[in-house]
Design brief:
Elements: H1 36-64, H2 78-83, H3 87-117, H4 124-132, H5 139-149, H6 158-170, E1 180-181, E2 189-191, E3 197-199, E4 203-204, E5 209-214, E6 237-243, E7 267-272, E8 275-281, E9 287-290, E10 297-302, H7 322-347, H8 351-359, H9 364-392, H10 396-401, H11 407-410, H12 413-421, H13 428-455
Length: 458
């Protein structure tokens, strides 16, 4: 008698020990895509190039940083100690810190402002194209452009040309550096300690004022200067400011001669009881006249500003402004990149959230601060971290824009690495240590960005 067993039965097996196919056996899952072997074959060329161009240089740099300049003597961590003990290298690290703090914030902020504002204009595409256009220019070319923009000569440098035009708009005075009043017992004027020139005696309407000036350099004499003419008083207070010097000698001191030129563009003040009652500017022949003066006596004064050099802008490429000037060039290049990325994130924001806030009575600033910025925070963080990586690696702009005389003031780690290794230092041990130090600084931000991309937060 055969006993029947109830319950699940083991599936039949074949000779290899695996289950045989049958009506109750699930079909095998087929692999989608190529097999791992084929994938490895196609990845090998890229992995080989990655090893040659990335892995090997990193490994060799770490190895080389442990040797001296000649590469023959093992010095351990001595090169890394030099990085934090040398004054020039510490200044380089300080400059990099300024870059990391300032440049990413400015680029991200400007990109956010442009992205938000371009949503409200009809020609947004054209504007974005113009702002993004510097990205098509290499950093080397951008450095050449801004080297010209920051030229100190207003006739060449755009920045100083704009500043001098604005300055001349609000100040019509002509500068005559190192010029001074002709003094002496017979001179009608005297020079005060601050450089101001004043008449020795008060003058009244109808009494012409003569102000002789000497020490005017030929190169600062305006091309439009005309022969000086002794102004007549008439019904008002008038006078003449002129260069009291006759080429070749001769002439009468304190009196305008036929060959002596007036000094145009000088500011002249009529002072009464210590207060400026009226102001005039000398004409091409040096003459001036005060209009609307009340009857009385006045001291005529030439302010000290007349004897300072004319405003020619700022020394952008000097040791004080060189780092901010280069950061400005960096912002010009990367602002378009930040704007495009943030604009893409802005387009993905649900509009119903913005409209709901406006319906609830929120102002545009409140919508921007409480709705737009929080929803854009993942994109803003990606842009910000990317800019930090770019600032840590900046080399081209500093190398091209900063003149050799001020490069130590504008130096950054990447440029110092090149200078120490190949720019005359010939110390590839210290240069390799700087390269490894820069890699250590960049790695955390790269890892942060990679993790965000893997999570799909951006």
């Amino acid at each position: 008698m055969t006993e029947r067993l109830d319950g699940p039965q083991d599936p039949p097996v074949d000779s290899t020990g695996g289950p045989t196919s049958g009506p109750d056996t699930p079909p095998k899952r087929r692999r989608l895509g190529p097999s791992p072997t084929i994938a490895i074959i196609f990845l090998m060329p890229a992995a080989l190039l990655l090893g040659i161009w990335v892995v090997y240089p990193i490994g060799y740099s770490i190895f080389r940083s442990l040797f001296d300049a000649s590469g023959q003597t093992f010095v351990g961590l001595e090169n890394y100690g030099t990085i934090f003990s040398d004054g020039g290298t510490l200044r380089t690290i300080r400059n990099n810190l300024i870059w990391v703090v300032v440049a990413p914030i400015v680029v991200t902020t400007i990109g956010l402002i442009f992205a938000v504002l371009t949503e409200r204009i009809k020609w947004a595409t054209a504007f974005k194209l113009i702002v993004f256009m510097p990205m098509a220019v290499s950093l080397m070319a951008a450095g050449v452009i801004f080297r010209l923009v920051y030229d100190e000569d207003p006739d060449k440098g755009l920045a100083n040309a704009v500043m001098t035009v604005v300055g001349d708009t609000f100040s019509s005075a002509q500068g005559y550096p190192e010029a001074r009043a002709r003094t002496g017992d017979e001179s009608p004027v005297a020079a005060e300690e601050d450089g101001t020139v004043v008449t020795k005696q008060p003058v009244e309407a109808g009494q012409p004022v003569l102000i002789p000036i000497v020490g005017v350099k030929p190169e600062v004499m305006p091309a439009n200067a005309q022969p000086a003419v002794a102004a007549t008083g008439g019904d008002g207070l008038a006078g003449t400011v002129w260069f009291d010097f006759t080429p070749g000698g001769g002439g009468v001191n304190g009196q305008p001669d036929a060959t002596e030129k007036g000094l145009p563009g000088m500011t002249v003040e009529a002072v009464s009881d210590g207060q400026v009652a009226a102001t005039a500017t000398t004409a091409e022949d040096g003459s001036f006249r005060f209009e609307g003066l009340s009857p009385g006596s006045y001291v005529v004064r030439l302010p000290a500003d007349n004897f300072t050099a004319a405003y020619n802008g700022l020394t952008w490429l000097g040791p004080t402004l060189i780092t901010p000037a280069i950061i400005g060039a960096f912002v010009w290049v990367w602002a378009g990149f930040a704007m495009v990325l943030i604009a893409a994130g802005l387009a993905a924001i649900p509009r119903d959230a913005l409209e709901a806030a406006r319906i609830d009575g929120a102002s545009e600033w409140q919508v921007f601060r409480r709705i737009t910025v929080p929803l854009l925070s993942p994109v803003l963080l990606v842009v910000f971290v990317t800019m930090i990586i770019n600032t840590l690696k900046v080399f081209d702009l500093v190398f091209i824009i900063a003149p050799p005389s001020v490069q130590p003031e504008a130096n950054v780690i990447a440029l110092e690495m090149w200078r120490v290794s190949f720019g005359g230092g010939n110390n590839q041990g210290l240069g390799s240590a700087l390269a490894v130090f820069l890699l250590i600084l960049v790695l955390p931000f790269m890892i942060m960005n990679i993790r965000r991309f893997k999570r799909g937060d951006s």
